[in-house]
Amino acid sequence: MRAAVLHETGQDKLEVLDDIEAVGFGPGKVRLRIRATGLCHSDLSAMSGVLPQPVPFVPGHEGAGEIVEIGDGVTGLNPGDRVLVCWLPACGGCPSCKRGQTQLCLTGFMNAGTANFKRAGDGADQVFGMAGTGTFAEEVVLPASCAVPIPDDVPYDIAALIGCGVTTGLGAALNTARVEAGSSVAVIGCGGVGISVVQGARAAGAAHIVAVDPVTSRREAALRFGASEAVAPEGLDDVKNSVTAGEGFDYVFEVVGKSATARRAYETTRRGGTLCVVGAGAVDDFLQLSMFELFFDEKRILPSLYGGGDVLRSYERTIALWRAGRIDLAGLITHRVRLGEINDALDQMRTGEALRTCIEI
User: Fold this and answer.
1) Hey, is 60 helix, strand or coil?
2) Distance, first Cα to last Cα, the chain
3) Fewer CB within 10 Å of terminal CB in the chain, N or C?
């Protein structure tokens, strides 16, 4: 089958190969035919080494498709079922799951250390899937908990976005920060996840939502999705003064994953306000804060992993908001490519041209 593979960390191009096999099928597993997958910035971060990932690997973790085959012991799923890929499944039995913090379950991360692809032929090299998945492929073998059924009225491309970027952004606003009605919000970084934060803040009833991004097209998009103002980074101080009289925003979301941006976001948050860190950054990029300002300003710093809540409930809420017309998911897809054009999609994301590119498998 066909799949896009990164051979070495740091390479900026993927090679689309025809001799990849999905492996590991057995008890508790499902074989999934991918129909659509989104390109997330985390895929680029894994390719560059910002996010750790064994190589060679098939990127992609934001996907949807249909069940081809189920292994022994799998219940609640059947061949032909339409599902989205959950790249961070909950085991249900670890301390994090028992506390209700299923987004902190390490089961999904453990999956990333086991290859679920290989090159065809005896003794062929093993190939990993990103975050234990690898949706830039025609088929993938996954633990059954990674396959979440979707209603018939949810298209595959929409379901794929719910599998990561939309859930991450909406959840940061609704689960982690718990944006209050009438509040002021700034969102720094307005790609697909940042735009989803904007939509979450709007759904929560924020009175002022300021989108901050260096790319003109992304600022324009943010306004379409509910931002009240959109500025380049150099305009942030002026809009902070005009919207909050210089005090700072009630909530600031950092959706870039850089310490410099997080520091800027901290300074833009009012005393007693909330800084929500959504961007996935590097292990050696450190945010510096003084002990005095932490004590004196009493700003809450809240990291948000995968939306900061139970992802299955978050999926259901996202679908309900989408059906009600409260959020726009189709509008997030600005580009569509086939798998053979995957490197074009990578370039579109690097330049900021695309919010989300849908790869049709």
Assistant:
1) coil
2) 11
3) N
